[in-house]
Design brief:
The structure is a single chain. By secondary structure, the chain is an alpha/beta fold. 50% of the residues lie in helices and 14% in strands. Helix 3 packs antiparallel against helix 4 and helix 5 crosses helix 6.
Length: 139
């Protein structure tokens, strides 16, 4: 199966959180060639930002973010610039962040599902974009 995943899914593979087992299973499927995982190229930067933020909040020990980043499974990354205009259009309509909408625009363009653990994104967009799937709904 081919999926777009956002950084909320990727982070759950290195940070123990609710639904981490779902994210780990999805990424294990990627490693085994069962799933194809793709994301806009901002995925890595968003994940690095979230890990650095966890260090600043003292949820991680200083230096731990770099180790976890090295352990992060990177999906096949697609350039975000060609997605930017559509992402901006979606963001303007839905009144949410452009970065989140890059993932939606990629899933729309590639005609595949977007798997996310971002419930705010799901609530804001799933009605208009039924291909947005909650990570928790995966086996």
């Amino acid at each position: 199966m081919r999926y777009v995943i956002d950084s909320s899914v990727g982070l759950k593979t290195v940070l123990p959180e609710v639904d981490s087992p779902h994210a780990i299973a999805l990424c294990d499927g990627f490693r085994q060639g069962i799933h194809e995982l793709i994301a806009p190229d901002v995925f890595a930067v968003e994940a690095a930002h979230a890990l650095a933020k966890a260090e600043r909040k003292r949820l991680l020990i200083v230096g731990e973010a770099s180790v976890l980043f090295d352990d992060l499974i990177l999906p096949d990354l697609h350039p975000s610039l060609p997605l930017a205009a559509r992402a901006l259009e979606i963001a303007s309509h839905a009144r949410i962040g452009v970065y989140d909408c890059l993932y939606v625009a990629l899933a729309e363009r590639e005609q595949t599902e977007l798997v996310t653990a971002d419930h705010r994104l799901i609530r804001a967009l799933r009605q208009d974009f039924p291909f947005i799937v909650d990570l928790a709904s995966l086996p």
